[in-house]
Design brief:
By secondary structure, this protein is mainly beta. The protein has 2 domains: about 10-90, Probable inorganic polyphosphate/atp-NAD kinase, domain 1 (Rossmann fold, 3-Layer(aba) Sandwich), CATH 3.40.50; about 100-250, Probable inorganic polyphosphate/atp-NAD kinase, domain 2 (Tumour Suppressor Smad4), CATH 2.60.200.30. The protein is about 15% helix and about 40% strand. The protein is built from 4 helices and 16 strands. It has a 7-stranded antiparallel sheet. It is elongated, with a radius of gyration of 20 Å.
Length: about 260
């Protein structure tokens, strides 16, 4: 059982009861699969750290600020039915790609959904460059804004989709974009300026082919933090001496998919 952090949305005893009634056991040793109970943030965290197959279990939101859990395959109230289907073989294991993240050539870790460079508490807008290189894509752009997010297909419903949620007169928490298979998404966060070198383009969000190398660096001193690749709430401090590189990861995240959902 992999529960939400802090105060769990579901008491561990209640979750164990559901598992037991489904004829399954909780083990501290090698497991056939893990149950991750929480929201998309918790799914992202365990999705980048665990090698066992994972079933993402959401909890129905009780208010506007509640978790939306877009990546969930089931909800806690429907978990008994989901476990019954798994016991009956009505599931598959989908291996989803991760992105590797490096700082100055040194591996920081891998991410399942996204990684983003964002301004810290002691900074206004940050000024940074994004350089994309690869056999199918190559360009450099400069930007001024709150930062930039690099997302996998699994991360499309997260930070990458903020432009979709603010279209029109009212915010739509259910609106999100998609990133096709074999692509990586790049999205500038609330930019005041972007410019792609050698062109008239001022990009906000786009995709590049999987396998591309993405280098991000600051070109003016600022309080900037890298999030998504560690458990640090304050992120990883990034300076003008650093280059953050995002490339295909070496591992995959094994996700339990219920058939027919």
């Amino acid at each position: 059982m992999l529960l939400d952090g802090g105060t769990p949305k579901v008491p561990p005893a209640a979750l164990k009861k559901v598992i037991s009634e489904a004829g399954m056991k909780v083990t501290d040793g090698k497991a056939d699969f893990g149950l991750v109970v929480g929201g998309d943030g918790r799914f992202s965290r365990y999705g980048r750290t665990e090698d066992m197959p994972l079933l993402f279990v959401g909890v129905r939101a009780k208010g506007a600020a509640g978790s939306k859990a877009h990546l969930a395959q089931t909800t806690f109230d429907e978990l008994p039915s989901a476990l019954k289907r798994i016991r009956g073989g009505e599931f598959s294991i989908d291996e989803q790609k991760r992105l590797g993240v490096l700082r100055n050539g040194k591996q920081l870790g891998e991410v399942f959904t996204d990684v983003y460079l964002q301004r810290g508490n002691e900074s206004t807008c940050i000024r940074y460059k994004v350089r994309v290189s690869g056999r199918e894509a190559g360009f450099e752009e400069a930007a001024i804004g709150d930062g930039v997010v690099v997302a996998t297909e699994s991360g499309a419903s997260g930070y990458y989709s903020y432009p979709d949620r603010i279209k029109g007169e009212w915010m739509d928490p259910a609106a999100f974009a998609s990133i096709g298979k074999g692509l990586v998404g790049i999205c500038h966060i609330s930019p005041t300026f972007t410019e792609r070198e050698g062109s008239s383009q001022h990009p906000l969000r786009y995709t590049v082919p999987w396998g591309s190398r993405i280098d991000i660096s600051l070109y003016r001193k600022a309080d900037a933090r890298l999030y998504g690749v560690s458990d640090r709430r304050s992120g990883i401090a990034i300076t003008t001496d650093d280059v953050v590189t995002v490339v295909p990861g070496k591992k995959t995240t094994k996700v339990v998919l219920l058939r027919g959902t």
